Amino acid sequence: MTHAVAEKPAIHETGTSMFVNGLFPRRRSLVIAVGVVLGFLLAYAWSPQLADDQIGFNAADAMLGHNALTTPIAGVTSGVLFAFVSGLAGSFTACNVMVLGAVGPLVGESALSRRESLARMARPIGWLAVGMLPLSALYGALVGVFGTHMPQFSTTHSPGLSPRIIQAMTDFGVIGVVMIVLGLAAAGVVPDPLAAISRRFRNAPLILMGMLIGAFLIGRPYPLFGQMFRSAAQHHNPLYGAAAFALQSLGNIVVMSLIVLLISVVLRGRAGRWLAAEPARVSALTASGFLIAGVFAVLYWDVRVLHLMGYIWFPTAPWH
C-alpha cells in the first residue's frame, strides 16, 4: 500500500539522520514555498524597535530592577547575572529569534519517540546545550583575552559596511545558509549533509544545532549584548568571559525550551498520535522550521542590511 502523503526518493536512505527520517512530504514544493514565504514575511515585517526596545529592554529592566542599557555593570557577579538576564530578555530579538527554528525539529523528535516523562522529553534540549555551551564559553574566553581589539567592542558608528556589520552579516548569513540546507534535506530535496556522522553518533544533528545557537553571539549587535561584551573585554578575565557568554546562551534558549516542553506535553494526546502515524508530517514540520529561520537570517542580516546601506533594494514595511 502506498503512502497517501509521502514518498521515498531514491537519493536517500530511510532515516539518514535525526532531522531526515527518509519519508518526505509528497507536496514538498508547497512545504518549501511556505517556509520561504514565511521567512520573507518575517524579515519584511520585523521591527527592531518593538523587539529590542519595547520587549528586550523593558524585560531586562524589570528583571534587573534598573535601566539595563544605561546602568554600568558593577563587577563580575553583576556581569554574570546581567548575562543571563540579557540573554533571556533578548529571546525575541532578530539575532536570536532564529532559535525558534529548532522548535519544529525538537517537537518532531519528541512526537516520534513517544517519550513519557518530562525528563526524557528534555534530553534533546540537553544535547543542544552540549553543542552550544562549549562554543559560547570559548568565544567568551577569547573576548576576555582579546576583546578590546575585536570589532564588537567598538561603539563608533561609521557610514558603510563597518567591520562590526561585516562580522554580523557573515555570521548570521552562514548560519542562515546552514539552516536552509538542513531544511531542504528534511524536505528530501538535497542529500542529508549529516548522514555520515549521524550513523556514528545519533545526536550529532542536535549538537550542530546547539553550535549554531552558540554562534549567534559571534555576530550579535544587540545593545545589551554589546554592554556585556565590553564588560568582559575590559575585565581581561577569560573565566568571567566564558561564564558570562555561556549564561547568555542559556538565557537565549529558555523560551524555546519552554515552548518545546509545553508542545511536547500536549503532543502526548491526539496531536502526537497524528504526527507519529505519518512521519512525513514530522518532515514537513522540521523542514518548514529550518527554512523559515534560515531565509529570515539571510534576508534580514544580509539582503536587508545591504539595502539599508544603499547597495541593493529590499521592500520596507510602512511601519519602519
Mind explaining what this structure looks like?
With 320 residues, this protein is mostly helical. It is 67% helix and 1% strand. The chain has helices at 28-45, 48-64, 76-89, 103-113, 118-121, 123-146, 163-186, 195-200, 204-214, 216-219, 223-235, 238-266, 270-277, 279-308, and strands at 6-7, 24-25. The protein has a two-stranded antiparallel ribbon with strand order 1-2. Helix 6 runs antiparallel to helix 12. Residues 1-13 have low confidence and may be disordered.
Please outline what is shown here.
This protein has helices at about 30-45, 50-65, 75-90, 105-115, 120, 125-145, 165-185, 195-200, 205-215, 215-220, 225-235, 240-265, 270-275, 280-310; strands at about 5, 25.
Q: Quick one: biggest sheet?
A: 2 strands, antiparallel
**Rounded average pLDDT:** 85
Order of secondary-structure elements: EEHHHHHHHHHHHHHH
What proportion of the residues is helical, as a percent range?
55-70%
Number of helices: 14
Tell the overall outline: globular
Number of strand elements: 2
Low-confidence stretches: 1-13
- Output the radius of gyration: 20 Å
Distance between the termini: 53 Å
How much of the polypeptide forms β-strand, as a percent range? under 5%
Labels describing this entry:
two-stranded antiparallel ribbon; 67% helix; mainly alpha; 320 residues
SSE order and pairing:
Blueprint: E1 6-7, E2 24-25, H1 28-45, H2 48-64, H3 76-89, H4 103-113, H5 118-121, H6 123-146, H7 163-186, H8 195-200, H9 204-214, H10 216-219, H11 223-235, H12 238-266, H13 270-277, H14 279-308
Antiparallel strand pairs: 1-2
Helix pairs in contact: 1-14, 2-3, 3-11, 3-12, 4-12, 4-13, 4-14, 6-9, 6-11, 6-12, 7-14, 11-12
